[in-house]
Structures are given as structure tokens and as C-alpha cells.
Protein: NCS2 family permease
Amino acid sequence: MSHVSREARKSCLRRDARTSIRKGDEVDSFFKISARNSTVGNEVIGGLTTFLAMAYIIAVNPSLLQTAGIPFDAALTATCVGAAVMTIAMGLVANRPIALASGMGINAIVAYTLCLGETAVDWRVAMAIIFLEGIVILILVLCGLRKAVMDAIPASLRHAIGIGIGLFIAFIGLKGGGIIVSDESTMLALGDLTSPTAIVSLIAILVAVALQVMNVKGALLISIVAATIAGIPLGVTALPSEWSFGLDFSTFAAPFQTVPGTDTMALVQVFLQPALLLFVFSLLMSDFFDTMGTVVAVGEQANFVDKDGNVEDIQPILTVDSVAAAAGGFFGASSITSFVESTSGAAAGARTGLSCVVVGVLFFVFAFFSPVIAMVTSAATCGALVVVGYLMLSDVVNVDWSKIEFAFPAFITILGIPMTYSITNGIGFGFISYCVIKIVQGKPGEVKPLMWVAALAFLVMFIVG
Structure:
């Protein structure tokens, strides 16, 4: 009997092993992991790195939206669930390592301009504006306009967008880490390098660079974890004091909720106040071109951008991102958009949508454990962001610096993105300057029609503000 039992157990183990291999092959085939020279381990590490680099949104977005009148727990649920659903969708549909969550900047517009500014609309109406903007962008994508605009951009300008975002990411890391601070006389200055926050940031940079030099897998992820641990005795990393286990779905379907004190649906209120449609246009411009820059930047790191700056299989990426914008308004989480921090995961080895599935699952999990994520400070992620900035700057050799019509727009784009703290503004400067130079050269016919349309739209946006 004992011999039979042993044989039976061995047979079961062999069958389980074969089943596991088949499942592994299916995952590899679906996500094209081997075809893109990656491994499941690389995708998991890349996903973890991306998640930790962007996890600040779990704490920041609900706090911002709370000022707009949205209950904190509801905003937290909307933020995590929205990010999880749309990031997993990006992984399954587009199969690229681009994670999505509520966009910084747009959430501030929702809180401080739409809900607390001169417009002073109910937060449900603000979400209806976000929802409507997402629908418009989706229509533009399905019509092929968004891809056509990207195709109309000169190659040097496409590379410049990625380079500018690299500097922007490094700047965000240094600023968040207290190494660069604001100054009344010089605008920017070196921070106090002996402060606990700066010390943690320097540790993060040192670990990230050292491990990168040693070609250690997961170098950026390790740097974030190491800096977070180092921040505990220094008082930078705050240990969780309480836990939250509940979910609040009260913001879901916000555009279709009735505005308190009225009998009208929030979405209808947007059309009853035509001035609000201007916000649809301005938010559309921001979403449209921020995503364009982010996709190019991540593509450069994950090797799905060719030497001319063309992004492979861009249509599904743009489609998911456009749906995400509308979904953000529907969930009540502000506009959900592609996160430039995804470059950190790509730099850590992510090449497929499997990393997005990892990120999405983590967002679901940490909807219940947000205090753990609150431990990861901007100082802890400083090293990862600085290294990613360095890696993205290598693309500068692909800009044609010998011709001013390409070189100056590239320069002004690279300069404009970090200096104005806006990807959209930097791209706008590059587009407009390119068109102006072509007019001065007497070669306006060399500018593709959609570049003229985009440059004009940027000009209107800058004038109207």
C-alpha cells in the first residue's frame, strides 16, 4: 500500500508540474514575455517598482479631492479601484508596461479651480466634466486623430519630449527629496543636505546608482525599500498608526448622480453652464499631450519606440488611456491617465502588460492597506526617479542638432517641460516654435496639417489660459 501511495503521489506531482508548465507557457505566450526578452521575474519586479514609484497617489489624491467635498474613504476607494481596473486593462489590451492612476495636476484643477474657485461647482459636476473630456478624447482616438497627430510630429521633437520628461522626472525626485528647494531670490537652491529628508534621498540615490552599476536586478525597487527602512530611525518614514479595511463606493457613477439642491443630473449641469465646456477643452489638451509624452518616454525605456520616435502598436494604448479618462470621472477619482513613473518600472526590466497586472492587483490590495503605502515617501523614491531621468537623457543623441528648425523646438521642449512643471506646456512650446521657424524659412508647406492644428490649439490654450 505504501509503495502504491508513493507512486500515486509522484504521479500527482508530475501532473501538477505539467499543468504548471502549460499555464506558464500560456502566460508567456499571451504577454509575449520571452519574445520581448523578458522574464516573469522581471515583470514582477518592474511592476513592484512602478507601483511604489506612483503609490503616493493613494494618499495624495483622496486628500486633494476631500477639499472638493468628496468623503476621504470614498475618494480612496475610487482612486485605488480606478487605477487597478484601468492599469490591468492596459496590461491585457495593449500589453505594454504603462500604469495608470488619477493624474496629478488635473486633480488639483478639480479641487481648487472647479470646486473651490470662481466656478464653485459641485464635485459631481466636476467629475461630469472629466467624464465628458474623456469621451471626446476617446472619439478622437477612434477616429485616428490622436495617432495622426503623433505621426505628424518630427522625429527630433518626439525624442525631445522623452528627454524633457527625463529631466522632469529627475527634478520631481530631487524636489520631493528636499535636495532642491524653492528660494525667493534665486527661485531654486540647494536644500539642507543634513536634514533627515535629504539624507534619506541621498541614501536612495546612492543605493540606486551603486546597484545599477553592479547590474543588480530590481536595483530601483531595492533602493526604494532601503530608503524607506532608513527613514524609520530618522523620523522620515512614518509607521502605520491605524488601519482601514472598508470600501466606500458612493462616488461611483458621479456624472449621473443628481446634484444636491437641484433636480438635475451632474452631466446635464455641464451643458446648462456653457462656460464649463472651456474646462473640457483645456483638460482635453492636457490629457491629450501628457499621455503622448508619457507613452514616448516609457516606450524609450521599454524598447517599443523605433529610431524615428514611432511608438509600436500605439492605437490600443491610446484607446485604453482615453477610456481611463472617462472612467476617472465615472468613478469619481478625477481623470485617470498614464503615469510617467512607469518609466521606473521599464528601467527595472518591465516589457509587457504582465507588469501592469501586478500594479493593478497591488492597487486593489492597498485599497484596504493604504497606511502601508503612506510609509513610502517622496524621499524614498528620489533615487529611482533620478536614475530614470539619467537613463532617459541618453536619447539626446537622436536629436538632429545640426538644423535649427529641429534643434530649437527640441531645445525649447526639453527646457519647457521641467521649467514649467508641465509636459503639455513643453510640447506646446516645441510645436509652436517649429511652425514659426518653418514660416520664417519660407517652408510652411513642410509642416504637416495636423501640426498646424495642434500648434494653433496650443496658442489658443496659452492665450485663454
Q: What stands out?
A: The first strand starts at residue 100 and ends at 102. The chain has one domain: 33-464. Residues 33-464 form one domain.
